[in-house]
């Protein structure tokens, strides 16, 4: 897919994220909008995974550590054909499998996540299993910047380097906001790149909304032989909706009717600018 | 009272090590992870013969549980090894979310459980682990009694699909169960049939129950002694069948009274067969330093405590 085609797809994804969050009156709006372009490129450009090969031992694995942004994942999985998009009308409803965090009861989800600091250790284990079997599949995980203070991430970062897991890629959705405020104010983790480099990772920065840059960067994996790769994706929380961008209240905020209508209008208008 | 001859005493952790080594030979999907306690967990033989399937993760238990969950996504059957304390309380969230809730085929193997860890004291002597693990939905909880049974249990859980907590310990105890036993998860094992009282024991207290049974026999009390090696799922049918006959119950475990085997039996009796119960276990206390024998005496985890509990409960019939 060309960057332009991906950009068009992301507009559709953003509309669906908002549609289903608005319908459910629940969800993590800002973070889903910040990571959706990354998921778009992963599932439509990089990962060799789809409904047809999801049971294959050779499929690439994607594990979403920032499970609360499940709406972004569900919208992409529906688009890939893992389940009918209309299933998402039950999002966060009683008796629905499409709950507020990823669960394996939903086709296409590798691992239940939601408690933060879990995705990286799990991904390291999966990457180790691949190495053990000399399998070529790769493991990708998406972390929020707000979950980096969880110590288990750093334990896993050590292990990944120790076992030279160049089949592992962690992507940080670095939108610089978390539920309480600026990540730099809550618990400053900067400089993230130097920390991971000193732990033995190969690190790149990207604009997490630049499709061409995301494609090219992901195409270059692994960045260094025998090292796990980290992509720090600089993103904007609430990206694509003027009044949501970089606004803390949209971490868990749900648009009202008027706000929803404005958001959809903005996204429709964005199509013409591509 | 049946006799239970034995020729050697061994630690249950060595039973785990032997079972794991056996699995190394028979099941290529079994992998082992350890948090810097390879010697304590008796995982050396597996490590030596199957180095490509052994992962030293260092002192990073949360990470170890996460790695194990991840390895199942690659089709492995991971066995994690560290002390019971660091296998449970330290990593409860990892077990809850990444293993139990996710339905992962991870075997959490925990040594040095209870006060018999001994000299290192209360920080390392967990007495709450059975409770924490049994509360987790879909978690199987196993606490075998001797070397042979721990070895058999280790081998058996590899063939069971789902999360398991396997608890064992440090001290050398009589190895009195058969070497060729078939371990059936969730199946209580009647060691001695009796009619006056049902003694349900788990782990190291099973042998203490056998010793108590001999003392009781001398007093003319015919005790039924049942080894509850699986705390969850509890063999309710076997327990109720025994209690229907004896009409009174003693539980015995190296664990807090709150949340352990006795707690599970109390719930069962209250629901289905309300009859007198006395519980042998640790009563709302942390441990302390000492030899295993000293601590088992201090915390009343021995045959004397079981005999007293039997006398007390029989008086309540």
Report on this model:
The complex is a heterodimer of chains A (about 270) and B (about 325). With about 270 residues, chain A is an alpha/beta fold. Chain A is about 40% helix and about 10% strand. Chain A has one domain (about 5-270): 3-Layer(aba) Sandwich (Rossmann fold). Chain A contains 9 helices and 7 strands; from the N terminus they run ααβααβαβββααβαβα. Chain B has 2 domains: about 10-175, Rossmann fold (3-Layer(aba) Sandwich); about 190-315, Rossmann fold, CATH 3.40.50.920. Chain B has helices spanning about 10-25, 45-50, 60-75, 85, 90-100, 130-135, 145-160, 205-220, 235-245, 260-270, 290-300, 305-315, and strands at about 10, 30-35, 55, 75-85, 105-110, 140, 165, 170-175, 190, 195-200, 225, 230, 250-255, 275-280. The relative contact order of chain B is 0.14. The model of chain B has no long low-confidence stretch (mean pLDDT about 95). The interface of A and B includes residues 112 and 114 of A.
Secondary structure elements and pairings:
The complex is a heterodimer of chains A (274) and B (317).
Chain A: H1 3-24, H2 29-46, E1 61-64, H3 70-79, H4 119-132, E2 139-144, H5 151-162, E3 168-174, E4 177-178, E5 181-182, H6 183-186, H7 192-198, E6 202-207, H8 211-219, E7 229-234, H9 257-272
Parallel strand pairs in A: 1-2, 2-3, 3-7, 6-7
Antiparallel strand pairs in A: 4-5
Helix pairs in contact in A: 1-2, 1-3, 1-9, 2-3, 2-8, 4-5
Chain B: E1 9-11, H1 12-26, E2 30-34, H2 44-49, E3 54-56, H3 61-73, E4 77-83, H4 84-87, H5 92-100, E5 107-111, H6 129-135, E6 140-142, H7 147-158, E7 164-167, E8 172-174, E9 189-192, E10 197-201, H8 205-218, E11 223-227, E12 230-232, H9 236-246, E13 249-256, H10 261-272, E14 277-282, H11 292-298, H12 303-315
Helix pairs in contact in B: 1-7, 3-5, 8-12
InterPro entries (chain B): PDH/Transketolase, THDP-binding, Transketo_C/PFOR_II, Transketolase-like_Pyr-bd, Transketolase_C
Cofactor (chain B): thiamine diphosphate
Family (chain B): Belongs to the transketolase family.
